[in-house]
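Thread: adenosine-5'-diphosphate complex, take 2
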Amino acid sequence: MKNKLLFLGPPGAGKGTQASLFCKKYNVEHLSTGDLLREEVSTGSVLGLKASEIMNKGELVSDELVLSIVEGRLISEKKGWLLDGFPRNLIQANSLIHLLEKINQPLEAVVLIKIDDQFLIERLLARGRQDDKEQVIINRLKIYRDKTTPLINLYEKQGILKVIDGNADIDVVFSCIEKALS
Ligand code: ADP
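Output below.
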């Protein structure tokens, strides 16, 4: 099973759920920048407070901050890893290329979970996290479209993109991912 991975998809696609399932089953480190940032917020640090303001608007926190979080984790990682929520724009994608070269661990596959727009907002409103309010969701979707979707092209050109249909039950989607990464 491949174990140097990146999961891509809009908020609400089920990316985090699938990433958790995969990491548990295959003993891979789950690096979710959203979760790591929320951890930082919960400590009440100055950095966390600044991040939470940005996250609650649905904007992206600074590239430097997320990069430093990811770098610290990846460098110490001995088993495989799965990046979830990073990179989110081209600057971060370029930083990732350099970082992976430095640690000599090339990315093996990128999983893109696709889902019909109509389900996204419904799913997110049902989740009810602090940044799951309608206006904030709309902003996050817009940022995903503008900033994150250009990465799809990049990974497609590298020949490592696996497109997965996310409009199905959790276990069905999971089997598709396993098949794509085996
Ligand atoms: P979702 O995938 O549902 O959008 P996440 O938990 O991945 O949720 O991210 C929540 C918020 O955390 C984002 O809206 C953003 O403010 C911040 N964030 C997470 N990852 C990054 C990143 N790589 N770059 C900048 N901001 C990020």
